[in-house]
Amino acid sequence: MSTGKVWLVGAGPGDAGLFTRKGYEVLKAAEVVVYDSLVGAGVLSMIPEGAKTIDVGKRASHHTMPQEEINQVLLREAEKGYRVVRLKGGDPFLFGRGGEELELLTEHGIPYEVVPGVTSPLAVPAYNGIPVTHRDFTSSLHIITGHKRAGQAYDIDFEALVHTKGTLVFLMGVTALPDICAHLLEAGMDPDMPAAILQKGTTARQKRIVATVATLPEEVKRQGIETPAIIVVGRVCTLADRFAWYEKLPLFGYKVLVTRPKELVSTMAARLRRQGAEVLELPAITTRRIRENQALKEALANLEQYTWIAFTSPTGVRVFMEELIEAGTDIRRMAGLKIAAIGEGTRKALRERGLAADLMPEIYDGASLGEALAGVCSSGDRILLPRAKMGSREILEKLSGIPVDDIPTYETFSEKQDYVDEASLFGPGGVDCAVFTSASTVKGFVEATPGLDYSRVTAACIGKQTKAAADAAGMKTYMADKASIDSVVELVIKLKERQ
After folding, report:
1. Which of 9, 287, 301, 368 shows the smallest number of beta carbons within 10 Å?
2. Angle at CA of residue 346, ends 434 and 338, nearest 5°
3. pTM score of the predicted model
């Protein structure tokens, strides 16, 4: 086997939307992923199916695996010929010990690349309305590790830092906050110099305390703070309230779990993030095309017998078109067919393939689609219905008396990711709301979370069938006014406002 390669990839500060495009592309091609505790669950959920995962659990003073052993793991996996991604919170080269990991790889001739990440000393203040530089206040920025070995003094020239008159950002210094502030005061810093501590920046649990170098330790004692957090010292901290923007978004402070089929990129997640939610995307189901589908082959060979073809999901569109192409059927043979779509997502999937929907119900569910089709069909019309093997019978009940070829084209299976513990996400400070866009994603989620107390799950559901599945699991369920992405987002905003 040829020698593999290692990529050091920065996962960013927490918000999955801040994971870089290049990082995502590299991660999708990984065969082995070695990751830290500070990598957010949203980024971990992007790890490809089948990749070997190794949790090295590094967090300040709580290392699951010593650094030297991590270096050896990277070397060993690369020597086996694998594409290895070392996924690190923030940026690999900013107190991430990335240089140490590259030393051993260099010694053994292992090829590597570095993919920088969005780093917390810049991103976290930005999400709190603090520009780390501002020409009216400071022209320099200094990033310092606040971590020191137990019993040892700081190897930091605090007097030099004070003399810079720049913004100071201390990482990994929460427990040492009183010491850091004391050293700055001893070095001559003005006791009234503004200072802030910023907790879990860019996530739903973001919190800030702004005070002064002299009073910040006492304020932290009074108000409480959780790790990870960073300390910012400088006059720019006075701008936080004036420039704060993240907390003004409708869903700031709300953590939402979005379930989806593994194959689909979630438009829902993007919409929720734009409203300020911290979104964790977890594939609840995966779909597999039914191979050697004789019934579908015969339907494709005789498309002229149908008046309508009705699609009930984007996956149904994708699978049908794949089969059409593989069968060598000219798409122009669909020219005489009218096309029905169950909702916006399905219509979008058709549009992406150059097809327009002739009919779409106002309510996006099977019963409404069946009713709409029944209202436009004439005597002699025939309907082709390529869909999931376990599709609802509601559409067929509404089409009673009309010839329908109901052909299963794909099956759904629950999807479980070992490196994201879905059940633990619903503990204190965890997920506030789970969004479900189909009954199958509810079932997939339930199968992936055995033992979870579902009464703790607030479920925002896209329609009646989805709500019924969530009700059956014992969740606290709410249904959108319309079966559309916009309506579900509106529902999530309402649920947050009720908190």
Report:
1. 301
2. 155
3. 0.82
257 - beta bridge partners?
280, 434
Catalytic-labelled residue, pool 5, 55, 58, 486: 58
203 and 278 in contact (C-beta within 8 Å)? yes
In this prediction, residue 61 carries a pLDDT of: 47
Alpha helix positions (H), 233-293: 240-243, 267-274
Six-digit token string for 260? 């989806």
Alpha-carbon separation of residue 239 from 233, 250, 390 (angstroms): 12, 22, 56
Q: Give me the amino acid identity at 216.
A: L
CA 34 vs. chain centroid, Å, equals: 18
Of the residues 15, 36, 91, 365, only one is catalytic, namely 36
Catalytic residue list contains 36 = yes
Tokens 């004070």: give the residue: 162
- Answer yes or no: 5 catalytic: no
Mean pLDDT of the chain: 90
**Which residue numbers in the chain have pLDDT < 70?**
1-2, 58-63, 148-152, 262-265, 416-423
pLDDT tens digit sequence for 320-353: 999 999 888 888 888 889 999 998 889 999 999 9
For residue 104, give every residue at least 6 positions away whose Cβ sits within 8 Å of its Cβ, in sequence order, or none. Answer: 71, 72, 74, 75
Q: Is the peptide bond before 92 cis (omega within 30 degrees of 0)?
A: no
